[in-house]
Write a structure and sequence with these properties.
Layout lengths: L9 E2 L11 H5 L6 E4 L3 H14 L14 H26 L6 H9 L5 H11 L4 H11 L5 E6 L7 E2 L2 E2 L6 H10 L6 E5 L4 H6 L17 E6 L2 H12 L5 E7 L7 E2 L7 H30 L11 E5 L5 H10 L4 E3 L15 H9 L5 E4 L7 E5 L3 H11 L28 H12 L5 H12 L4 H12 L28 H8 L14 H19 L6 H27 L1 H4 L8 H19 L1
Parallel strand pairs: 1-11, 2-3, 3-6, 6-7, 7-8, 8-10, 10-11
Antiparallel strand pairs: 4-5, 9-13, 12-13
Helix pairs in contact: 2-3, 3-7, 9-10, 14-15, 18-19, 18-21, 19-21
Length: 601
Amino acid sequence: MSFNNNPHTFHIPVMGLGYSIDSPIKVAHYGISSVISLVDDISMEKMREFYCKKFNLPFQSIPSKTEDHRAKRITAYLNTVQEIVVKKFEDLKNSVSHTEEELDKYIKMLPDFSDLKLKFNQMINTGQMKQKLSDWLSENLVAGEIDVNIMSKLDRDAYAGDEKLPSIFSDAQSALRGFALSDLSSSLVLSAGMNPRLYSYLEEFEDFYPNAAMELKKKVILKVSDYRSAIIQGRFLAKKGIWVSEYRVESGLNCGGHAFATDGFLLGPVLEEFRNSKEQLIEAVHEIYVKALADKGKPVPEKPLLVKITAQGGVGSNTEHQFLLEYYNLDSIGWGTPFLLVPEATTVDEETLEVLCKAKEEDLYMSDVSPLGVIFNNVRGNGMDLKKEAQNKAGKYGFPCTKKYLALNPVPEKQTICTASKEYQRDKIQELKEQNLNEMEFEKQLSKITDKACLCNGLTASTLMANDLDVKMEGTAVSICPGPNLAYFSSLYSLKRMVDHIYGRTNVMERTDRPNFFVKEIYMYIEYLGGKLEETVKPITDKQKKYFVTFYDNMEKGVEYYKQLFLNYKTQLDDSTSKNNLMQDLENMKMELLKLKAKIV
């Protein structure tokens, strides 16, 4: 099934700006891979100082006045994480000679079918000498990957005063440089669509090219929501001599964080296309890749380099996990939201953890709070929204824009601005007042302007507070972005217990009314389409009608696809943790879809 050395069949995706910022330090020595966001170098600098003190490592600060400070901070933080992970992993491998608790935990968390686990237990049961076992562990245990994420959209230009700096100092390119110059041998996850100038910048760094042994020190992972996007981006990068080692397919809506809705393309049919067309994708990209490498005078592989296909978004049971792996022939499944409730894996403050534990379906919703203008999965009762509501009620709109990572809205003759900022909202409200709208329309438009929240600070404050670090810049108001799956996980879990849940050795969900994740995604898309129809001014234009008809047709095909899938694979999809009737749920979704069709035609 999987061609890589990773001992686990799941990974922990990036979460927020801070929630997985130190996840590799917590889980990589157990063989579990996770992803760090490279957005917030300010928080990384604080976390580097924190961990240097904790592990007695030398620390020298990198002030913001330092030339190329952003890239240098990111490199320094990633090198520190690597150093700590290496130390913890070496200690674990050597623990057979000292305390065996960590080693025991590593082995017990592996999947039961793992060759590594079977071989280890065989050696133990045959009474192998400790030295022989120690040598075997040193050769065979594998640490998890310290992967990083750049959200391509977050590529604000840098300025020195009013002077715009060269593009290589933009936020995304600086982050890329920070990773490229680090000691890590891991993957860069590129998400949120294609950014040509960022993708082209990859060419500048030797670590992304194969060496004489056809090994890549640094790999590229593309997060995509459909096959077409994968092949377009894969070819674009191949022309630059950059190989995509993994296509990470994420549900458009049934995920945490920002949600990038497709035109009604559902996860199952998308994965089916990857399953059927993976070889064509690899061959098409390989041909372009070989030519690009030859033109650059780089070592050229005789056959395509390895490619993984992975998936994530709303998975919550071992049944779903195994079905994705086996039916779609995937290499790993991303488990994000449930790990927010695992303090051994992510870093969330106590007050926010309480909000997460209590959250029910009605508390988890798709919001418009993001300054990016993209749907943002939200939970009611989070600190940032409570602060925003209190401010709005008092007529104090917007937030101080201290970090500016989301200051991407163009303003004539000015640097870009964040739509959650005080300055932006003040100007927009003034424009609104000058339109002389009736009271109802004014309040509606005002609400749209003032709904935006400060995510730069909100998505890092929790992690900093949990470690008792300085939050003068960030404040104490927390934003957090779990997926709707959170409703069925309602307490804190140990790392081993969550891993046991993933592998079907236990069940941490007390409720039995959780819908199948495929069905949940259909419901979310129906809700999304209904909302779009509701907010569209009537009569619908021909262009709008074409969009809605395409969306509906894709949904209808998706539901028909699931009908056949559920009929043919009922046994594999029958979840012992849920009493829901898959076919009945699907029939209900079909009826809801037909109701929307009546509004389109």
